[in-house]
Amino acid sequence: MKPQKNARLSRRDFLRLSAGAAAATLLASHNLEGAFAQESTPIPTPTPIPGLSGEIVLWGWKGGIEHFQAAIPEFQKLYPNVTVRIEEMSYEDTHTNVLAAINTGVGVPDATNFDVNHLGEFAEGLMDLTEKLQPYLHEFIPVSVKLATYKGKILGVPQDSQPVGMFYRSDLFEQYGLDAEQITTYADLVQAGKQVAEASKGEVKMLAMDVGSKICMGDPHLIIDLLLVQNGLGGTYFNREDDKVVVDTPEAIEAMEVLKQLSDPDICFLGMSDDAAIAAYGADKILATVAPAWFPLAMTGNLPQLSGKWRMMRLPAIKPGGLRASYQIPSVTAIPKDAPNPDAAWEFLRIAQVSLEGQLRFTEATGGVMPTWKRAVETLVEKPIEYFGGQKIYALYAAIAEEVPDVWFGRGWPEARSIMRKHTETVIRREKSPEEACKAAAEEMRLKLNKG
Amino acid sequence: MLSAKWPKLAPYVFISPFFIVFLVFGAFPIAFSGAVSLIDWSGVKMGEFIGFRNYINLIQDPDFVRAVLNTVYLLLLSGPLTIGGGLVLAVLLNSQLLRFKGLFRTIFYLPMAVSLVVSALAFTMLLNKPFGLVNDLIIRQIFNQEPIDFLTNPTLAIPTLTLLIIWRYIGNDLVIMLAGLQSIPSDLYEASRIDGASPFQTFIHITLPLMVPFILFDAILTTVNTFNLFAEPYILFGTEGGANQAGLTTGLLVFRVSFKYFKFGYGAAMAYLLGVVIFALSLLQLRVGQKD
Questions:
Q1: Which end of chain B is more exposed for a tag (fewer CB within 10 A), N or C?
Q2: Could you read off the pLDDT of A136-189 as tens digits, one per residue?
Q3: Contacts of B152 in chain A (CB under 8 A)
């Protein structure tokens, strides 16, 4: 099944749609070009735990559980007395049910998927996997482990990896006399956008942004998150200790200033629906978009006619010489503290997700979503990608993932994002200055999340 | 022994299913959420007793104020149109002059039979800018105007939601009003005709006063339903309530706070406070109705 065009396409929608996809045309065969230095530490050969029996129950949504299903035969060779039941539910239901189960202790699954931005909420009900994962940590992309860590404890097994770059239309860049190499800061991008707007009499714009927050990649809340991380705020809205709101710091205000410049109606389509944006991409009206690692597959699914015209570059930096890497929210799999059969659950995860074979199965099942196991990533970057004119985009993604700074999610992150989104909109509508919006957002976050 | 007591016990046994179901699924959740509203319960951690702090925070919460104002605006816009429209349609359908009454009744009630989600999704597609049927065919092709941003323009969020509500619920109001009209004795209309009253005078002096209890009932029902409205704004605008939260309703906010942010104590306090608001509004409507 190929990724389909879908209104309000988000990463989880994409994962759902692409589940069971035939191995994507995007998959390539070339070396990683040094993006990851392989550690020499060998993975220990685990000894099967004797006497494991009973049933394990795993929760997740379509797109994040197929590799579990595929791992059952291998698991049952080692543990024939353990049966595995995978319960598929919607993305929203999974998160709600996890919390209800952890709270009540009723119907607790043995393992469950969730998006890491909920880590702060779920932390107290999850098993600390630090010790169990210790022998395997060098195999994971470091940022994926950092994101699965809350207050020093690793609480989830990383599933997918979502470094973010920028896609641009090479043919249109050429047509408007732009050189992607020369766009190294957001100021350069804005300048280039103005050049395009002038040459096209406002018909063509550099970006698209949706005030109504429905375009997956033009959504201002996503862009401000990326900018905050780029400007040194690894917890986006919170400090490392998760006790202070940081969105009114000079770094955050500077990031918001950049967003204001990007949302200039001269260089950016505002208020577009996602369908309209896809049509506009198809009609050569938009030159660039921010793009996490799952986005290439959405592009090939939605805009196959543009094959060969897109290229990928790093995100521009906020300041000259600044960081050109950022990260979007991935998913993890965790074992609740009250899981009825935690040893069997860990053994299953070890086979299904804490192994090269398991992560390759995940990538295959999703049609090419970037895994978190370094050697599994290598298999994605071996061949040039035709859709991107032969560019080895996964090598670039892998390199970006290596450069992503320390990132984390704190308690109340989803609500903080909602608050930030609301105040970001006031900047886009030019109702408030970046400083006013950031201060208002910080005040509201402090009030609602009881942080300093 | 039991057979001797059975005649006295039997009535209680027979009516007990209702009370058991009500206690388990009605009274207990109401009491439990009342208790939860006094606790700082966020995420996994069931926190401490905080008295009325959740209620105090609610009053200072700009999102809550925004949601209440949006919902009141929606009620003021959609309420008169659905109730008034339902009454007018009922009068027309009750007329002796109209043929195919059953067909019209079915047509007007049909949207109620369509799945809520399906109807909201259909509206999303119809009103899409610029490719929805309304924008592409009506606004652009017929009226030669620029497409209208029904779903992402903050000013149009509540009017757009009103459109969907009228389309979907007017049939329900029609049925209530039709039941009311059919309960009015026909001899009153005959007497007014003999006295030479015009149809308009008959409507104002006979139909309307006698329909007051039904209008009142419908108004209370509409108020309760509007404050609990969830699926329609959720599908049209998402949990954030669209641009500038212009489509954020109280039902949507309770869901968002409780099941997206997992702040159960705060969500319960919100639901309770809304319960009080709905109760006060219903009481007000009853009082006004009784005076009239």
A1: N
A2: 999 999 999 999 999 889 999 999 999 999 999 999 999 999 999 999 999 999
A3: 210-212, 214, 271, 273
Question: Do A163-328+412-449 and A37-161+329-376 have the same topology in CATH?
Answer: yes
Optimal mutation site among A102, A104, A121, interface B, most CBs of chain B within 10 A: A121
> Percent of chain A beyond pLDDT 70?
86
Summarised one tens digit per residue, pLDDT across range B144-190 is: 888 888 887 889 999 999 999 999 999 999 999 999 999 999 899 89
Tokens 């206690």 appear where? B23
Does the domain at A37-161+329-376 match CATH 3.40.190.10? Answer given as: yes
Using the Cβ of A105 and the Cβ atoms of chain B, whether some distance falls under 8 Å is answered with no
B129 vs A102, A273, A429: nearest CB: A273
DSSP annotation of A234 reads: T
Cβ-nearest to A211 among B152, B238, B261 = B152
The CATH fold of domain A163-328+412-449: D-Maltodextrin-Binding Protein; domain 2 (3.40.190)
Whether the ω angle into residue B213 lies within 30 degrees of 0, i.e. cis, is no
Which string of b and e fits A183-198 if b means at least 16 CB within 10 Å?
A: bbbbbbbbbbbeebbe
B-chain CB neighbours of A210 within 8 Å are: 152
At B149 the pLDDT is 81
CA distance linking residue B169 with residue B147, whole number of Å: 27
Structure tokens, B182:
């059919």
Cα A435 from Cα A257, distance rounded (Å): 8
Amino acid at B58: L
- What ranges do the domains of chain A cover? 37-161+329-376, 163-328+412-449
Q: Is the pLDDT of residue A87 over 70?
A: yes
Lowest mean pLDDT across A5-14, A324-333, B2-11, B38-47:
A5-14
CB A103 to CB B245 under 8 A?
no
Using a CB–CB cutoff of 8 Å, tell me whether B43 touches chain A.
Answer: yes
A167/A309 Cα distance (integer angstroms)? 10
A102 touches chain B (CB under 8 A): yes
Find chain B residues with C-beta within 8 A of A7's C-beta. 124
Within B138-263, where are the H helices?
157-182, 186-194, 199-202, 208-228, 231-237, 250-255
Chain A residues with beta carbon closer than 8 angstroms to that of B128: 273, 275-276
> What pLDDT, in 10s, does the model give residues A199-236?
999 889 999 886 554 444 556 668 899 999 999 999 89
pLDDT of A49 reads 82
pLDDT in the model for residue B148: 85
Q: Where are the domains of chain B?
A: 63-291
Structure tokens belonging to residue B232? 């329609």
> DSSP characters for A327-378?
E---EEEE-BTT-SSHHHHHHHHHHHTSSHHHHHHHHHHHTS--BSBHHHHH
By 3-state DSSP, what share of chain B in percent is helix, strand and coil, each rounded to 5?
80, 5, 20
Q: Which fold is adopted by the domain B63-291?
A: MetI-like fold (1.10.3720)
